[in-house]
């Protein structure tokens, strides 16, 4: 089933309900996510609660954990951080029960850790934010889905940067860049390179090293159509230069 990943949108200066007689958990979670993307958070919370109840009836451990994770995302977006943490804590109870050799399970656990990292960052608890970000990237290392891994590496690296964990940021951004190149995904590569450029600047890298990355990234930016990815890059480039 689809995992609801919270993406940390961070830049410089400051995931149709088709009515059926017996909807399954995956369709209900897709419905919840559709509502969420449309800004209908209350409807998303209602749909994910239906999915959770069905997952409990079916005794689907992975689905239960994913439902609580999604619930945490929706609550967090409503500013209900304490309730979000409570939902994530319920999800955490299922993590030890999942097989570590199953891709779906690995992605579900990784997503949970990623989302815990972002909510603890919101709650001004950097130690917990970094802890769960590290847990997320280590779990992501075990996943086969390269696109998923790239996403996790980039999100968690943005957290590492805010907490001055620059070596961890460099390590996982390098992995994200390499995977994006393998997948021929210039937009995701640009996102990773943007954060890598910021990391070099923050760690006082040489002007020549920074300029080399800027030249490479400028060439890549010409292939990208995503307005948000380009805006983020040029904001960081302005800040660096």
Number of helices: 11
The strand count comes to: 0
Largest sheet: none
Radius of gyration: 19 Å
**Regions with pLDDT < 50 over 5+ consecutive residues?**
9-22
Q: Alpha-carbon distance between the termini?
A: 43 Å
Describe, in plain words, how this protein is organized in 3D.
It is a single chain. The chain is an all-alpha fold and 241 residues long. Helices cover 73% and strands 0% of the residues. The protein has eleven helices and no strands. α3 packs parallel to α5 and α7 packs parallel to α9. The radius of gyration is 19 Å and the shape is elongated.
Provide the fold topology.
Blueprint: H1 25-37, H2 41-58, H3 61-77, H4 81-92, H5 103-122, H6 126-140, H7 146-162, H8 166-183, H9 186-202, H10 207-221, H11 227-240
Which characteristics define this entry?
11 helices; single chain; elongated; mainly alpha; 241 residues
Summarize the structure.
The chain is mainly α. The chain contains eleven helices and no strands.
């Amino acid at each position: 089933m689809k995992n609801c990943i919270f993406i940390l949108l961070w830049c410089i200066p400051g995931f149709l309900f088709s009515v059926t007689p017996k909807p399954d958990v995956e369709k209900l979670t897709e419905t919840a996510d559709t509502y969420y993307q449309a800004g209908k958070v209350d409807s998303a919370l209602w749909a994910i609660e239906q999915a959770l109840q069905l997952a409990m009836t079916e005794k689907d451990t992975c689905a239960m954990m994913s439902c609580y994770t999604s619930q945490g995302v929706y609550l967090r977006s409503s500013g209900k951080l304490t309730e979000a943490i409570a939902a994530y804590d319920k999800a955490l109870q299922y993590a030890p029960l999942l097989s570590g050799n199953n891709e779906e399970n690995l992605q579900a656990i990784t997503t949970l850790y990623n989302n815990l990292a972002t909510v603890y960052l919101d709650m001004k608890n950097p130690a917990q934010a970094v802890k769960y970000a590290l847990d997320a990237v280590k779990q992501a290392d075990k996943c086969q889905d390269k696109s998923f891994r790239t996403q996790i590496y980039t999100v968690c690296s943005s957290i590492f940067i805010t907490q001055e964990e620059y070596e961890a940021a460099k390590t996982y951004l390098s992995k994200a860049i390499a995977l994006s190149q393998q997948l021929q995904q210039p937009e995701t590569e640009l996102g990773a390179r943007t954060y890598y450029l910021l990391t070099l600047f923050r760690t006082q890298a040489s002007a020549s090293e920074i300029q080399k990355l800027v030249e490479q990234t400028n060439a890549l930016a010409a292939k990208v159509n995503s307005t948000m990815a380009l805006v983020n890059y040029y904001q960081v480039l302005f800040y660096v230069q």
